[in-house]
Specification:
Elements: H1 4-11, H2 25-36, E1 47-52, H3 55-69, E2 81-88, H4 94-111, E3 115-119, H5 122-127, H6 129-137, E4 144-153
Antiparallel strand pairs: 1-2, 2-4, 3-4
Helix pairs in contact: 2-4
The chain binds flavin mononucleotide (FMN).
Length: 173
């Protein structure tokens, strides 16, 4: 079976090179709003979505992420927007809730002609004192735990082909 939505799912690819061109605010708003419609355990809406476009914080989050990796690269591949997803660590589904938010945003961005890639290590960043200091600066609760982030922007390269799906990915009983 094929339809536009299935094709969208199959053609989304992780983008690891971005044009510096900013993301129009309507497109960014649509991506962020799509995140808020993700399912969450018990309907608790445990996640908080933090959209970073301010160059000062864009640089700071890249620095903290690279520090976790032990290098000084830009883990967000030059994307003009970094969207962090954190969630209330007291919710027993905080990782799953945040992951659903991230996927909703990645698919919406793709539908709008934008590229994304999930970038990890937000847990380590926001469990650290430097991450907690940022939360205080942003007037957000320190009980938030990192789930993940997406880099967002216009792709600078053509998307590659997806890897072949593994054998026995699906088991029918
Ligand atoms: C939980 C998770 C963590 C990931 N972390 C990173 C990351 O830190 N950096 C990165 O470039 N890609 C990261 N990715 C992207 C994967 O490498 C990518 O989804 C995978 O290679 C499949 O490629 P595709 O997204 O193009 O289908 C992550 C993906 C997931 C789901």
């Amino acid at each position: 079976m094929e339809n536009n939505f299935l094709s969208l799912i199959k053609t989304r690819r992780s983008v690891r090179a971005y044009k510096p061109q900013p993301v129009p605010s309507e497109a960014l708003d649509a991506v962020l709003e799509a995140g808020t419609y993700a399912p969450t355990g018990g309907g608790r809406q445990s996640p908080t979505i933090i959209a970073i476009t301010d160059p000062k914080y864009r640089q700071e989050i890249a620095r903290l992420n690279a520090e976790v990796m032990g290098n000084n690269t830009d883990p967000y591949y030059g994307a003009p927007v970094v969207i962090l997803v954190l969630a209330d660590g007291s919710a027993n589904t905080f990782v799953e809730d945040g992951s659903c938010v991230l996927e909703n945003m990645m698919l919406t961005a793709h539908a709008l002609g934008l590229g994304t890639v999930w970038v990890h290590r937000e847990r380590e960043i926001f469990d650290s004192e430097s991450g907690k200091a940022l939360l205080r600066e942003w007037k957000l609760p320190e009980t938030l735990r990192g789930v993940g982030a997406i880099a967002l922007g216009y792709p600078a390269k053509e998307a590659g082909q997806p890897a072949a799906r593994k054998q026995n990915y699906i088991v029918r009983i």
